[in-house]
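Standup notes
- DV: blocked on the single-chain target, sequence here:
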Amino acid sequence: VQLQASGGGLVQPGGSLRLSCAVSGFDFDDYTIGWFRQAPGKERDFVAALSRNGGNTYYADAAKGRFTISRDNAKNTVVLQMNSLRPEDTAVYYCAAGPTILSQIYFPSAYYYWGQGTQVTVSS
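- DV (later): unblocked, structure below
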């Protein structure tokens, strides 16, 4: 099982980035796919998740209305489109494959497999 996150970079406040998580070694229908982020000195926080059937999406309050999670079945990729970025969005972003029980999807400890992370820096 592998997850490979990419797409991070430096962007000005108000800008956009598109993060991708390429997955291999498992079927999308087996796991929830989540995005988390971790800023220096802080805990890893939930950002967004996509249910294993792709039909349901879940967002942290900080992401609602600005971020969109989706998947491309043909490319085995989950995408996190981030718009209206703010300096407080600066963090390392991780994708992960994890639980199918809704109450657990918000907790990084419940996820089984992790990608390596991609740095997002929002600064002028």
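- Follow-up: The chain has a mean pLDDT of 95.
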